[in-house]
From TrEMBL:
Transmembrane segments: none annotated. GO terms for biological process: iron-sulfur cluster assembly. Residues 2-123 form the NIF system FeS cluster assembly NifU N-terminal domain. One of its GO terms (molecular function) is iron-sulfur cluster binding. It comes from the Bacteria. InterPro entries: NIF_FeS_clus_asmbl_NifU-like, NIF_FeS_clus_asmbl_NifU_N. This is Modular FeS cluster scaffolding protein NifU. Gene3D superfamilies: 3.90.1010.10. It comes from Hypnocyclicus thermotrophus. Pfam families: NifU_N.
Length: 124
């Protein structure tokens, strides 16, 4: 299995690792096929993602997709973050091995779960 330099960089030096206490949005997604688990924490002000953190238990691809997806949504409007797809996450990493594409789906789903949590809280 060959990883791109970007995958290795984000795996060895993950960005935005951690937890936000009392987040505005929180999403937790697991992939039963490989056992990876991803959590996304969002701080949102005026519908702009001001801070994002993640915790991921998983392989190099899961950590790299978590890291780069947080970079992709930081500073974006909530509506723009909802448009991030697993394909865009994989492309931002210069590709993933075919058997690891499910990790990019995990990142997309975790972001969407955190935003759905935010929207649910906002509308209550």
């Amino acid at each position: 299995m060959q990883y791109s330099e970007k995958v290795m960089d984000h795996f060895m030096n993950p960005r935005n690792v951690g937890v936000i206490e009392n987040p505005d949005g929180y999403g937790k997604i697991g992939n039963a096929s490989c056992g990876d688990m991803m959590e996304i924490f969002l701080r949102i002000e005026d519908d702009i993602i001001k801070d994002v953190k993640f915790r991921t238990f998983g392989c190099a691809s899961a950590i790299a997709t978590s890291s780069i997806s947080t970079e992709m949504i930081l500073g974006k409007k909530v509506s723009e973050a909802l448009e991030v797809t697993n394909k865009a996450v994989a492309e931002a990493l210069d590709g993933l091995p075919p058997q690891k594409m499910h990790c990019s789906v995990l990142a997309e789903d975790a972001i969407k779960a955190a935003i759905e949590d935010y929207l649910k809280k906002k509308n209550n």
